[in-house]
């Protein structure tokens, strides 16, 4: 019986190995949980941005620029020349002559205004240009400092 006792003793000998199978199962379950929940954690808002087909301005001729200062005075710049102060009637006459010189619809006119000028004064300048025969008037703007270009 001593042989039988030795066999029992061998069978009950402790193993010094770690059983990692349960740890692998837990790890796979956690991996699946994180894979499912990760897309739900993205922070952001869905925004439908407007589409634009706007193209950059390509000009063969220098545009006519009408500027309005904070006091409501008009300034006219023709063909990248010197900016000169004009009255509303002079503006009307000069732009009417420029419209007559150019092909119909080819004259490019831009209006720029001081940030502190009343909107009505800008609208008066646009109305004057329309009365002179300008078909399309563009508004000039300047991006804010630090804004993405």
UniProtKB/TrEMBL annotation:
Lipid bilayer topology: Single-pass membrane protein
Pfam family, any one: ExbD
A GO molecular-function descriptor: transmembrane transporter activity
Biological source species: Lysobacter silvisoli
Localization: Cell inner membrane; Cell membrane
Record InterPro entries: ExbD, Tol-Pal_TolR
GO cellular component terms given for this protein: plasma membrane
Gene3D superfamilies: 3.30.420.270
HAMAP family for the chain: TolR
PANTHER family: EXBD MEMBRANE COMPONENT OF PMF-DRIVEN MACROMOLECULE IMPORT SYSTEM, TOL-PAL SYSTEM PROTEIN TOLR
Keyword Cytoplasm attached: no
Entry's Gene Ontology BP terms: cell division; protein transport
Main localization category: membrane
Family recorded in the similarity comment: Belongs to the ExbD/TolR family.
Membrane spanning stretches: 20-45
Subunit structure: The Tol-Pal system is composed of five core proteins: the inner membrane proteins TolA, TolQ and TolR, the periplasmic protein TolB and the outer membrane protein Pal. They form a network linking the inner and outer membranes and the peptidoglycan layer.
Domain of life: Bacteria
Annotated protein name in UniProt: Tol-Pal system protein TolR
Functional note: Part of the Tol-Pal system, which plays a role in outer membrane invagination during cell division and is important for maintaining outer membrane integrity.
Alphabetical keyword list: Cell cycle, Cell division, Cell inner membrane, Cell membrane, Membrane, Transmembrane, Transmembrane helix
């Amino acid at each position: 019986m001593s042989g039988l006792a030795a066999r029992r003793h061998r069978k009950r000998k402790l193993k010094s190995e770690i059983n990692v199978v349960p740890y692998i199962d837990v790890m796979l379950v956690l991996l699946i949980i994180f894979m499912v929940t990760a897309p739900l954690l993205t922070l952001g808002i869905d925004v439908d941005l407007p589409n634009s087909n706007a193209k950059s301005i390509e000009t063969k001729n220098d545009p006519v620029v009408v500027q309005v200062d904070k006091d409501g005075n008009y300034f006219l710049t023709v063909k990248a020349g010197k900016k000169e102060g004009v009255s509303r009637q002079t503006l009307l006459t000069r732009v009417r002559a420029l419209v007559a010189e150019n092909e119909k619809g080819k004259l490019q006119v831009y209006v720029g205004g001081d940030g502190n000028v009343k909107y009505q004064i800008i609208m008066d300048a646009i109305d004057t240009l329309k009365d002179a025969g300008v078909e399309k008037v563009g508004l000039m703007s300047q991006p804010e400092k630090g804004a993405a270009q």
